[in-house]
Design goal:
CATH topology of the largest domain in chain A: Glutaredoxin
CATH class of the largest domain in chain B: Mainly Alpha
Oligomer: heterodimer
Low-confidence stretches of chain A: none
Number of helices of chain A: 6
Number of domains of chain B: 2
Shape of chain A: elongated
Largest sheet of chain B: none
Largest interface: A-B, 15 and 13 residues
Mean pLDDT of chain B: 86
Distance between the termini of chain A: 88 Å
Structural class of chain B: mainly alpha
Strand content of chain B: under 5%
CATH superfamily of the largest domain in chain A: Glutaredoxin
Number of strands of chain A: 7
Helix content of chain B: 55-70%
Number of helices of chain B: 6
Mean pLDDT of chain A: 91
CATH superfamily of the largest domain in chain B: Cytochrome C biogenesis protein
CATH topology of the largest domain in chain B: Helicase, Ruva Protein, domain 3
CATH architecture of the largest domain in chain A: 3-Layer(aba) Sandwich
Strand order of the largest sheet of chain A: 2-1-5-4-3-6-7
Radius of gyration of chain A: 26 Å
Radius of gyration of chain B: 33 Å
CATH class of the largest domain in chain A: Alpha Beta
Helix content of chain A: 40-55%
Order of helices and strands of chain A: HHEEEHEHEHEEH
Largest sheet of chain A: 7 strands, mixed
Structural class of chain A: alpha/beta
Distance between the termini of chain B: 79 Å
CATH architecture of the largest domain in chain B: Orthogonal Bundle
Chain lengths: ~200, ~150
Amino acid sequence: MPPSADPEEVGGDRRRLIGLIVGAVVAALIVALLVVGLVNRGTSTAIDDALEAGSRPPAPALTLPVLVSGPGLPPVGEDASLSDLKGKVVVLNLWASWCEPCKEESPVLEQLWRANREKGVVVLGVDIQDLSSDARAFIEEYGLTYPSLRDGSDDAKSALEATGVPETYIIDQKGRIALHIAGPVTSPAQLQGPIDQVLAEK
Amino acid sequence: MGRRLTAGIAVLLAVLAMAVPALSLTVNEVAREVRCPTCNTPLDVSNSPAADRMKIFIADRISKGDDKQEIIDALVVEFGRGVLATPPKSGFDLLAWIVPIVLVVGGLAAIPFVTRAWARRRADEPVPEIAPEDAARLDEELRRRDP
C-alpha cells in the first residue's frame, strides 16, 4: 500500500503554488507597465519612416476647437475635424506664440495661403502648448488670416509624431500625409513645389 | 497672581515676536502644482519659453485676485488635466493615490505570514544525523569539560 500524502503538506504546497502564481502575475504586470511606459516615452517615427519608404501614411483623425475659422471649417470655438477638409490640400503647421522660429515662419505661411487659397489649398495652423490669449495676440500681431485650431492637450503633436514647433505637413486630397518638414519653412518656394505637385494629382 | 500675569504677558510677547506676516499667494506656490507642457517638469523649476508665459499668466491672475484653485482650474481649461503635476484625488485618477498605499499596506501585512511560513518550514526540516566519529568526539569533549 503506497504511503498516503500528508494533507497538511498538500495544503502547504498548494498555498505555495498559488503564492508563486500570484507573485508571477504581479511581477509580469509591473514589467508590462514599465515596457508600455518606455515605449510610449519615445516618439514614434512611423510617419517619417513611411514617407522615407515612398508611401503616404494616412493623416490622423484630429478634432480640435477652432481658433481662427476658414473655408470648410466651423465658427470659432466649435470643434473642427481634419476630415472636414478632405478633398483639399492641407498645409498643416504646428506653432506656438512663444516659438521664435514661428515668428519668422508665419509671414511665409500667410504668403502661401494668399497665393493658393483659390486653388483648393488650406493653410491650417495648429497652436500647441500655448495659452489661448497668447495665441490670439500672436495671430493679431502678425496679421495672420489663415485658419488655426487650438490643441491644448498635445493631441495633434502626439498624433503627428512631432517633436516640437514649428513642424509642417502637407496632406493630400485623399487625407494622406505627403510631406513632413521639421523646423521652420523659410521661404514660400520650399512648399510651393510640393503643393503644386499634390494639386496636379487631382 | 502678579507672577502669573507677568508670565502670561511674557508668553504673549514671545508669540507675537515669533509671528511673521504671511506672504500672499506667490507664483511658485501655484507653479509647483502644474507642469510645463514642453519639458514635463514642474513649472516652478522650468524656465522654457512656454513655462515663462505660464508664470506670467499665473502672476496676472494673482494680481486680479484669483485664488490658487481658480488659477489651476484656468490652466486645466487651457492645457487639459495633463497639466496637473499630480493626479487629482477624485474619479479614476484616485487609483494613482490608492494603489501604492494598498500595495505598501498589503506588503507590510504579508510580512508576519511570510516569516511564520519560513519559520515553520525551517522547523519541519529533519535534523541531520551526526556521524559516529563526531558523536564520539563530542562525548569526549563534554566529558573533559564537565567530568
